[in-house]
Amino acid sequence: MSSLPRVFIVDDDVAAIQLLSRILEPQYTVCFATSGADALTRLGHDRCDIVLLDAQMPGMDGFELLRRIKRDPYLQGMPVVFVTAHVDEANESLALALGAADFITKPFSPPVVHARVANVLRLYRDNAENLQRNEARWIFAVEGAEQGVWDWDLREHSVTLSQQWRILLGDDEGAGDTSVDAWRARVHPDDAAAVQRRLDRHRRGISSGYESEHRMRCGDGSYVWVLEGGRVVQHDEAGRPMRMIGTLSDISRRKEAEAQAFSLAFYDPVTELPNRRRLVELLRFSLVGDQLGQGSATLCLVDLDHFKLVNDAHGHDVGDQLLRQVAVRLKACVRQQDIVARLGGDEFAVLLMHERRSAVSPAAAAEAAGAKLLAVLAEPYAIGDHLHHCSASMGVVAVDADKAEQAEQLLKWADIALYEAKRAGRGCLRFFDPAMQAAVEARSALEAELRTALACRQFQLVYQLQVGDRSAALGAEALVRWHHPQRGVIGPTEFIALAEETGLIVPLGRVLLEQVCEQLCAWERDADLDDLTVALNISARELHEPDFVDFVLATLARTGAPVRRLKLELTESALVGDVDDIAARMHRLRDHGVGFSLDDFGTGFSSLSYLKRLPFDQLKIDRSFVRDILEDTVDARLSRAIVALAASLGLSVVAEGVELAAQGDMLREFGCRQFQGFLYGVPMPAAEFSSVLRAARREAGAVV
């Protein structure tokens, strides 16, 4: 092929074509056409370096041909020089506006023709070289930022890929052309449809640019995440896209970081299950619209019973292994469409999706599935060389389309049901009932009122007389009453359990201890009452507070109360735990003169080791034995045994709940010498108690 510049002459005058050919040859290769239509056809196949175009031609004149050349993306960069015998201002302006590069006038002057053709070619060649340099700089800058470049020829259905593009995808081939089909076939099958939609949207002019994050196949067959972007840069005269240029970047590291961030935000690192945040999203997605349809679902909240003991006894590593085994068991028990999540700590959630046309009711299916889950979780866990046992409790709430969007509320309802399962003894399941919600709301309101009551000092003590032989007054038990501004006086059975659950029993107990100490000081100053002792019940929460002993001693010292007049009553439930620690606390107080009584003896664990290891002065026979002592021989025998046991250990005994003289007489026959109950006096405020007892002593010579 000749390397001479190619000149294409378009003129209906054959003589003019021949003359120009003789002038330009042999420095140029000349080809020609005698009409505008023929010229367009030939130019589409034979690309030339310059066009010499006659302005006046029949049919399609030179101006119309120039207009079409400049609209064609493949011809528009070709310089066009007008050839005319008449150059007037109007035609010259029109030709220049259409993109003419210069004019050659007839008759031809060979030196002028050569000069104008050479100048135009040199100018366009310089422009092309500048364009190539700028494009090279752009590609250099882009590839310096580790971006590959692609150039898509939509007309020829081919794409040019840069060297950096090949490097990013691990190709052995260098930069060059490839088929569009081979190029797009490298997109991951799962991403291909979405990528094609984005490309089509831009090519149709719906979006201003093309951008897509997807996976592409590397040379070794693996896939890498890429960010691809581009724009159509050329259109044909009908507005159809003809050329598109874009870039490609490797975003694998960013995707990995995003995946890690997503996992940390939405998945539990120990079990790799969805966490609470992710569960809420999955609930909202799974339980709305067509996902739930006319079917239903059940949300189960699972809590491991006494899991803390496993952690405390064997360490968190064993605890984590047990949690992972729980996750595996739960997932193995459900279907693919069901969801298992870990909410935190030892709490899991299971969402069971029920078939629309199932013959089994959702409630029955949920109960059966729940029972299966609890049974599986109760089986031993093999961790290392040991077997560990850990049952579970479950709260269940039914879900239908009306409740599907209330994800957080569903979790609250399931939690309420779980709380009821724990109260029922653990290792069981409970279905949510609206009455549970009412109870929880009432409990929450009561807790708020308790806090207000503490702040406003609405708790006051009443005192019930304790007597010895022949009903001689020995002291009193301090009993708390809540003076509610609307409900009046409230007994402890309505609020003590909640105070213990919420921890409010600790500040309440400290307030009551101060009241007792102040009352002991008042009686210490009264010659008629200075021998009275006061017994105050101490809860397990109070006893296990780190500063409990220090607080008791500090309160005694601050108030100046007579230490040996204070007796602390402990129930057997308060002694569960580290007995050595409890014994050390009791001995510290005992060394200062504080006495101890074991309350409600016989109703709890009744471990004799408590009596052996702990410094008690006294046992109290529970009112449940005393109530039926006259009719129930078992109660009578138990009461006699408790008195005998106390005597053998050198402990005194107080019988609670004595309401009949016959009860007192029988207890005296058993050897009991101290009593408390309505037979001897009802609980009274301190002032009334003092007044009644003082008057009785003065009247009866210190005997009531």
Summed up:
This protein is α/β, with parallel strands linked by helices. It has 25 helices and 28 strands. Helix 2 packs parallel to helix 3 (62-71), helix 11 (307-314) packs antiparallel against helix 12 (316-333) and helix 17 (505-524) packs parallel to helix 19.
Contiguous uncertain segments of 5+ residues: none
The CATH class label of the largest domain is Alpha Beta
The total beta strand count reads: 28
Portion of residues in helices? 40-55%
Going by CATH, the architecture of the largest domain would be Alpha-Beta Barrel
Helix tally equals: 25
Give the radius of gyration. 49 Å
Strand arrangement across the biggest beta sheet? 19-20-22-23-24-25-26-27
Overall average pLDDT: 86
Strand content is 15-25%
InterPro entries: Biofilm_reg_signaling, CheY-like_superfamily, EAL_dom, EAL_sf, GGDEF_dom, Nucleotide_cyclase, PAC, PAS
Domain Response regulatory: 6-121
Domain EAL: 443-697
Domain GGDEF: 295-434
Give an overview of the whole structure:
This is Response regulator receiver modulated diguanylate cyclase/phosphodiesterase with PAS/PAC sensor(S). The protein is built from 25 helices and 28 strands. With about 700 residues, it is of the alpha/beta class. It folds into 4 domains: about 130 residues, Response regulator (Rossmann fold, 3-Layer(aba) Sandwich); about 110 residues, PAS domain (Beta-Lactamase, 2-Layer Sandwich), CATH 3.30.450.20; about 170 residues, Reverse transcriptase/Diguanylate cyclase domain (Alpha-Beta Plaits, 2-Layer Sandwich); about 250 residues, TIM Barrel (Alpha-Beta Barrel). The strands form 5 sheets. The chain has an 8-stranded mixed barrel with strand order 19-20-22-23-24-25-26-27, surrounded by 4 helices. α3 links the parallel β3 and β4. It is rod-shaped.
